[in-house]
Each structure stands twice: as C-alpha cells, then as structure tokens.
Amino acid sequence: MSFKNKIKNYFTMDDEYEYEYIEEDSVPEKITPKQKSQNVVNLQSVQQPAQRVVLCEPRSYNEAQEIADNIVNKRSVVINLQRVEGHQAKRIVDFLSGTVYALNGDIQKLGAETFLCTPESVDVTGSISESYLYDDEI
Fold this sequence. Notes:
Layout: H1 3-11, E1 53-56, H2 64-72, E2 76-80, H3 86-102, E3 106-111, E4 114-118, H4 130-133
Parallel strand pairs: 1-2
Antiparallel strand pairs: 2-4, 3-4
C-alpha cells in the first residue's frame, strides 16, 4: 500500500466503519421478568444511623488522641477547654486542627474556649459573630 493510500485511508471512512441502521421491526420486544428480584429494598424503609455529637472537656493534652478518635469515627465533637492550661489548650487545638484537616473536616470556634470539630460528612451552616463570643452579659 502506498503512502498516499495510507494517508487517504487515515482521513476518510471506509465502508466498514459506517454506521449500520437497524430497522424497528428487527428490534426484539422488551422482556419482562416473571418474578421480582428479592434484592430490591424500599428506600423509605432504610433508616440512617443516628448521628452522634460527643461533648469533651479534657484536663490535659493526653486526652487529645481520644477526641481525635471520635472525629476519625465520623462523630462531631464539641470541646470545652476551660479546664486545660493555656499552652496545653493551644497544643490540643493544633493537634485537632491537623486531624480535621487530614479528614477534610472542619473546626470552628463556638466560644472563648469552646470548639466544634466535624468530619467531612457533616455540614455546619450559620455562624456566631465574634462580638458575642467574649460578651460576659449573656
């Protein structure tokens, strides 16, 4: 085969590549099953497991791993850091921030020493304005 014929065949369609049209009379009728499948489940009968929110009040940095385990198990965690010293509270928040980031979750500050950590499956809407976070009158 010459080079010219190869180029021609490359850019043009031969008869073997043309679409075949099927006449409607030659299409078989829809086949219906005689019995219903036993694997079909009504979606309304399926119940979702209850979502858990875990409340934690750690006393030291050593409890940060337990809090992170809850997040890994797809539970939302509210953390009150009032009983932890300042430097340990910062370490806990840093550790949990890394955990939440690795799981594509979210961490939000709810109050002066209160945080909410949520896994990726939880979507938190709304926000608390910062002027109320430190207001002692509430």
